[in-house]
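Same chain as my last thread, 453 residues:
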Amino acid sequence: MPEALFHATFPVSPATVFSWHARSGALQRLLPPWRRCTIRSIIPATNAPSVINDGGRVEIRIAGVPWAWVATHRDYQLNQQFTDTQTSGPFASWTHVHRFTSIDNRDNSACQLTDHITYTHGLATYFLSGLVAKELTRQFAFRHQRTRWDLRRHAEANLAPQTVAITGANGLVGSALVPFLTTGGHTVRRIGRGQADIVWNPSTNQLDPAAFAGVDAVVHLAGESVAQRWTTVAKKRIRDSRLDSTALLARTLAALPNPPRTLIIASGIGYAETDINDGICDESAPLGQDFLAQVCREWEAAAEPARQRGIRVVHLRIGMVISAAGGALAKMLTPFRLGFGGRVGSGQQWQSWIHRDDLVDVIHRSLSDEALSGVINAVSPTPVRQHEFAKLLGRAVRRPAIVPLPAFAVRLLFGEMGQALLLNGARVHPGRLLACGHQWRYPTLAEALEFEV
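reply #2:
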């Protein structure tokens, strides 16, 4: 029977690491971005506090695999171990034991996590045995690295449990932020249409102020995607989705007798004047004149009622988010893996970016660091020119990046949006984050892409 054994050490107690795994969101944080996985259900046993207690059940669908992966939990020992066993899926059998042991018996200040997996190949995996072993090594390196960073961030912030209301909780950033917060012991309340904890509709000014009772902070991530052809109608949707929602939130929170202490609003680096030279755009850089710059100006101004009320408002001007789970990178992966990737236009335009986990960290820091308010450039400290971006992505997927996309083709295919998002660029500098000593998980693009793909 094949087996695999993986070890990781963490500078926190076994109880801390165990609690992280027991909380809602742990499974989401442990799923690798390069596997398209959908969690169909997470069902704790009756009266059990967590799905990892005996009898807890999870069901996952993996893209390209015809069988759902269903596992149940057993052998639960508080702060020591739990086991998940496949009850249906591609393997004939699968058992994964998670053990948590103290490295320093005097004060339990460090933990070793041991993942011990034994399995039997089924018909579906028998001829892929070598790939299975390789994939396990890859996945557990990812799992342990993300867990280590998440635990470190929560320890650094030392933030008392908060209740955080989030718009756009199901989007690219929100779907990472929510499980990060819940595994840290915080409570998340989703703001959205239909089935949500707080129901709203910005186009009709629907938002119940009473629903914010007990909320400590609000994170506003929702907005119409800018990655579409900018027709007159699309521009109106993009603008209105940001201005109407931000204004509604700001007015509602400002009118509360006990408003949340913090309002964090996603903005964009599109505020900056584009430049292919070496000019650096920090938070004080002048505003650009194009459509996105004007939207950013009005978007940030719409939060004024909250500022006047004394709420600490943070505007995160976000660069390209690096994640294989969605956004620009996900769209680029297929052509690059097929060998059709390359520079866009001249390739000299600056690409300012941030890894999705680093963006989650910046939002988390904005929740805990009272010194942060106003505009914050949420980007990596190492922007690259677009031709360098293409070269590094080609290297990450082990393909040449030699097929250019000419500027005229970009304009023909995407119009004004293509010019603004693909052919223009700015060298955006995270001056305020650097000044407060912030550390990035993935400060270079090579590190970010290696982790993702």
